Amino acid sequence: MDKKIVIGLVIGSIMIVSGITLSGYPAPRGTDVSIKSAALVQNEISLTLIPGTQPGKPQVLLAAYNDNPYSFGSGIGYGYSTDGGATWTTGNLPFPFNPLTGMNMDQEFDPTATSDTLGNLYIGHIASEIGGSSGLYVHKSTNGGGTWLSPVTVALDGPPSGDPDPLYRFNDRCQMTADTFSGSPYTNNIYITWIKDRGFHMPQPWSDVYFSYSTNQGVSFSSAVRINDIGHDMGNMPIPAVAPNGTVYVVWMDYNVTSGGNGTIYLDKSFDGGVTWGTDQFVAQINLPPLRLNTAAGFTDVLAKGGTPIAVSPTSSSELYIAYAADPDGNGTDEADIFFIKSTDGGSSWSSPLRVNDDSTKNDQFLPWMDVKSDGTIDIAWYDRRNDVNDSLWDVYFAKSTDGGSSFSQNIQLNDISFPTPTNLWMGEYLGLAVDSNYAFVAFTSSLTDVVTGDVYFDKVPNSLSTVYVDDDYNASTPGWQIDHFDTIQGAIDAVDVNGTVIVYNGTYTENIVVNKSITLQAGSNPVIDGNGTGNVIYISADWVTINGFTIQNSGTNWGDAGIEIATSNQCNVSRNNISTSNAGIVLSSSNNNVVLNNSIINNQYGIVGSSSSNNTISGNTINSNNYGDGIYLSSSSNNTISHNTITSNNAAGIYFDPSCNYNTISGNNISSNDDGIDIYGSVSNNYNTLSGNTIWNNSGYGIYFDWSRSNTISNNTISSNNYDGIWLFGSDNTTVFGNNILSNNEDGIYIEESDNNNVSDNIISNNGWRGIYIEESDNNTVSDNTIGNNSVYGVYIYSSIYNTLTGNTLTYNFDGIRLGLSNHITITNNTIANSNYSGIWVSSSSTNNTITNNTISHNRYGVQFSDSNHSTIANNSISNSSWYGMIFDNSNNNTVSGNTISNNGWRGLHLYSSSDGNLIYNNYFNNTNNAYDDGNNTWNITKTSGTNIINGSYLGGNFWSDYAGSDTNGDGLGDTDLPYNCSGNIANGGDWHPLVTPSTPSIDYITITFGTENEIPPGNMSTGFTFTMYA
Predict the structure, then answer these.
(1) What residue ranges do the domains of the chain occupy?
(2) Is residue 40 predicted with pLDDT exceeding 90?
(3) Contact, 34 vs 425, CB < 8 A?
(4) Is pLDDT at 296 greater than 70 in this prediction?
(5) DSSP assignment, residue 1004?
(6) From CA 773, how far away is CA 764, in angstroms rounded?
């Protein structure tokens, strides 16, 4: 398309900011294509295009160039391509006729090319007679460069009348552009700028900047107008550019042609299509490179006063860009670098210069050209001599910016092979650059095949680089070297386009890698990335990054160093990597919605560390032998899923949550041989987490440890063979512990301390070294429907707690089934408690106001044991087959025992030591060899009260005794003889005054049998009806 305004300058006494960041690396260029190779010199190429419909294939590419410039008969050559630059058709423009002399001009030079939206191509140039007239001409082609119309004269000045001639003006250094913006009021206007100077033969040369325009597609041009306001020394090539709203900008540089030194950049603009102009605006003061750059070999091979290209943003008519060559420090040590400045207010103010070239040498870069794609990508190409220690051989380099010029990409070399300066002539003052939406196209002079004169070559750079390759065996002889083939991963990352892929082949890459754009970093065949013991091996600071298949090792040892760190980045995927010998395997820092999948994270200090990171998935990883910290550590992180990982042999916890980790899910993991299996810990609550389906075993500490956490769920886990407790809840309320297998832990199956309102249900808790469940200083907990067996000490032990409920549990083969100590208002109901080594239920240590009801308690040594505990109710239980006592009370007072069936117990059904007084025992069923013993002061019955008793009698009173020998004389179901019943003297004080008995058979006073009438007598009977009464 048309050239945007690009200005090339040298700026002095201005802070220079390095501009090399990762702003999107240029894509790979193609192989150099020769446009014109001839015995004569070709230089100063101008490039334009007519856009096409296929990426990288404009409808037409047009290059215009000097063909044997500055010699008699020199002309303007051109080449056009219709296949994206693969092949070229070349030709030469005719020499214009000079009406002042009646002859054709004999020199043509300074070509400039542009195109409009109607498919027309234009070439402008200067033509002169040696020592005589000079003019500015524009040629037009309407058929893609195949043929050219006669030139249109824009300006013509006659020869000098003498020497010196102060009125003489020489036309020079033209540049042209077209308005191609559909929204502009001046679409398809053609604008051309140039200078008129007095020539080098004057004692003090100067020049002025001129402008002309065409509103009829080059058929005619307006009268030339001078647009600079003040007289200048030697105005370098003025360059026009057009904004989307039609504003025309022109930029030029003023300098002293004989002394060099400083240069000044000026800007002018027109809001009416070039009809009127404003005042000159100062842009910058610069340090000029030497006018002819010296080389170590002593050659003077290039004039360094090339143009100052300007471009305008395609989306903002007031955002301007200028590129230029400058002596960075003004002392000639580094004679020329490429710099970029930017204005966002239409040229009123400008940014500090940003260096575009990224080499570390003092070698020279010069003659930049710039263009801007429709998406805002800024492309710059220039000549460069960084690759030659003698600062002599030439290359062509390229960089781009995808962030509006805030930074530029790593530079790439476009030409295939470095070339020397043509010996017969210098390189000219510019090269060619044009862009479409997909490619940048560059045309340049090279002496690769003609060291004497130099020829015109072409290359192109795709806008995108979707795939880049890395191998530590690649070198400068590799096709695509430093373009899409690199020997370092960082170089490839810098190069690849956003959303592209970097494929890394076998080798060991000692690098600390930064990924700051969305890419896929894919292992091709077993590559190793070694951080050399410093920093992060891979640091991710962009969204949508994938790291897959690498061996990553040897990060730094400071906190925060990692094999991979994902920092303030989202939607990343880290999978199938082997990460070792790093401070942390993977770190997530303020990063969300990432996936860490199927990695092997072994032998680091920490496995995975997450901080302020949420909605991440950590799944399928092997996290093993991390020798200082945890397998997985999270802090202030929520809604994460940690699933199906194997987490073993880590020095601290398998999984550790620090404060404020909420709504996380830990499921399906195999967690073993760590310190603790899972720690949910912190002075600030970790709430609403779910631990489900994990296998947590053989850890040297706890299986699961919750500290000051609320409303969490622990379900369907297998928690076994841990050195301490299977589950420990400390200061943690409203936890649901459901459906777990808690087996063979060295201490307690579940330990609940200072934790309230928890629900423990449907778990299998067995073979633990101490207690199945231990509850201490914890209130309002419910333990229900669990199977609790074979625990070495207690099935359930509740200590110093109130208002807890145990219901529906099966407790077998524990040392004690249930024990209460210093606990009040505990409800124990509907449990099955059997085969305990000691007590089925043991209420001890001043436990009061407890309720034990509807339990089945059998085959224990003691069915129910009370010691030092008062004011409790034991009701409606079945207590049987105890080897010693069904129930025993020691120093326990004011308890109520009623409705229980106490049978087949070995020594006694109920035993009360003398220290136990005030207990009420009634409505129980005693069927033991020795039913009771009581040498205290207790009550064995209540007053006769209507109501169904334990043997379905009509009255409540005392107890049923299998060995009561008295009788019920009045048929009310209460014994009336042998009172009080004292169990053969074993009840020392009083006894049962209303023992329950089965009611006696009622006496029959009489029976009356009445036979029927004759009709009712069966056949064969002769008797008639009668009545027979028998009295008892």
Answers:
(1) 48-464, 485-867
(2) no
(3) no
(4) no
(5) -
(6) 11
Q: What is the dihedral of CA 922, 925, 927, 930, to 10 degrees?
A: -10
In the numeric block, which tokens belong to residue 924? 């129980």
Q: pLDDT tier at 484 (50, 70, 90 boundaries)?
A: confident
Distance from C-alpha of 900 to C-alpha of 580, rounded to nearest angstrom? 65
Residues 6 or more apart whose CB falls under 8 angstroms from that of 1014 comprise 1024, 1025
Task: Let me know the angle formed at the C-alpha of 189 by 235 and 155, rounded to the nearest 5 degrees.
Answer: 45
- Residue 872 CB partners (closer than 8 Å, separation 6+): 843, 847, 848, 849, 850, 851, 852, 866, 895, 896
pLDDT at 522 over 60: yes
The rounded distance, in Å, linking the Cα atoms of 35 and 25 is 27
CB 546 within 8 A of CB 517: no
Rounded-to-integer distance, Cα 297 and Cα 932, Å = 122
User: Residue 22: which pLDDT band, with cuts at 50, 70 and 90?
Assistant: very low
Query: Which residue in 128, 148, 144 sits closest to 136, CA to CA?
Result: 128
> What residue has token string 């210093």?
822
Q: What is the token pair recorded at 197?
A: 């100077």
Q: How far is CA 258 from CA 13, 160, 290, in A?
A: 22, 21, 11
- Report the C-alpha gap between 1027 and 654 in whole angstroms: 95
* Chain mean position to CA 973: 80
Residues whose CB falls within 8 Å of the CB of residue 204, separated by 6 or more in sequence, listed in order: none
Nearest in space to 784 (alpha carbons), one of 745, 738, 840: 738
One-letter amino acid for residue 335 of the chain: E
Interatomic CA distance for residues 295 and 584, integer angstroms: 51
Phi, psi (rounded to 5 degrees) for 358: -115, 15
In this structure, how many other beta carbons lie within 10 angstroms of the beta carbon of residue 1025? Answer: 12
User: What are the beta bridge partners of residue 46?
Assistant: 64
List alpha helices for 458-542, DSSP H: 489-495
> Which sign does the torsion angle of CA 115, 118, 119, 120 carry?
negative
Helix (H), strand (E) at residue 713:
strand 713-715
CA distance 890 to 894: 12
390-442 per-position pLDDT tens digit: 878 889 999 999 999 999 988 888 887 887 776 555 677 889 999 998 789 99
- Give CA–CA dist 834/855, Å, rounded: 10
Mapping DSSP to helix (H, G, I), strand (E, B) and coil, where does residue 90 land? strand
Paired sense of beta strands 759-761 and 538-540, if any = unpaired
Residue 401: Cβ within 10 Å count: 25
Alpha carbon of 873 to those of 829, 848, 858, 908: distances in Å? 11, 9, 19, 20
For residue 684 the two structure tokens come to 């600030």
What is the Cα Rg of the chain in Å? 50
Could you give the CA distance from residue 377 to residue 215 in angstroms, rounded to a whole number? 29
In sequence order, which residues have a C-beta less than 8 Å from that of residue 289 and are 6 or more positions away?
10, 304, 325, 326, 327, 335, 336, 364, 366
- pLDDT given at position 12: 28
Could you tell me the CA-to-CA distances from 788 to 376, 539, 748, 760, 808 in Å, in that order?
Answer: 71, 50, 12, 12, 11
Phi/psi for 828 (5° steps) reads -120, 110
Q: Is the distance from CB of 325 to CB of 10 less than 8 angstroms?
A: yes
- Owner of token pair 């053969």: 984
Class level of CATH domain 485-867: mainly beta
For residue 545, what is the enclosing H or E element?
Answer: none
What is the C-alpha separation between 1016 and 1014, in angstroms, rounded? 5
**Torsional class of 190: left (φ above 0), alpha (ψ -120 to 50), beta (otherwise):** beta
Run of H or E residues at 729: strand 727-730
- Domain covering 48-464 in this structure, CATH number: 2.120.10.10
Dist. CA 814–CA 795, nearest whole Å: 5
Q: Which amino acid, residue 240?
A: P
CA angle at 726 for the pair 718 and 784, rounded to the nearest 5°:
80
